[in-house]
Automatic annotation (TrEMBL):
It comes from Cellulomonas chitinilytica. GO terms for biological process: tRNA splicing, via endonucleolytic cleavage and ligation. The gene is kptA. This is Probable RNA 2'-phosphotransferase. Its EC number is 2.7.1.-. Belongs to the KptA/TPT1 family. GO terms for molecular function: NAD+ poly-ADP-ribosyltransferase activity; tRNA 2'-phosphotransferase activity. It holds the Pfam family PTS_2-RNA. It is an enzyme of class 2 (transferase). Removes the 2'-phosphate from RNA via an intermediate in which the phosphate is ADP-ribosylated by NAD followed by a presumed transesterification to release the RNA and generate ADP-ribose 1''-2''-cyclic phosphate (APPR>P). May function as an ADP-ribosylase. PANTHER family: PUTATIVE PHOSPHOTRANSFERASE, TRNA 2'-PHOSPHOTRANSFERASE 1. Keywords: NAD, Transferase. InterPro entries: Ptrans_KptA/Tpt1, RNA_2'-PTrans_C, RNA_2'-PTrans_KptA, RNA_2'-PTrans_N.
Amino acid sequence: MTSSDADLSRAVSHALRHEPWLYELELDEAGWVSVRSLVEALRQGHDWSSLTVGDVEAMVVGASKQRHEIRAGRIRALYGHSLPGRVERVPASPPDEMFHGTSPAAAEAIRVEGLHPMGRQFVHLSVDRDMAREVGARKALEPVILAVAAREAATAGVMFYAGNRKVWLADSVPARFIEVDR
């Protein structure tokens, strides 16, 4: 992904995850909006005057983190929403185990209280340790990797949702399904 693609990804994420009203966008209940509407909104005073639908499509296809998806001329953010209300998700059967990277201080609280979405709509979980370590490194120089017994939690009634191929979402995860990864 080029630096301009990374900048575009950040702008699209902001519009679709956090403050669509600043761009005069109306997301549907599942977080979708037409790609054309998004492009027009970004062109209007947001430093993207020459942006095209093709540019947005290329950014989505070329992105390593797969934060967005496009279907039938519509686009949405797959995860990371801090919008009021809640983006609808379809429950899915998770992998047996997933991971969550965090700071040592937060890990202590999580081991007692469980995982909660904090300022987001969902808890974010990684399918592998490397991704969890990368996420945790944003919070601490020496992140703690937590292992989540996702299949066991789902059997007990915890709802999981596929975000993309590396990120899964959950409403919350009780502490009894979480341990420090060894």
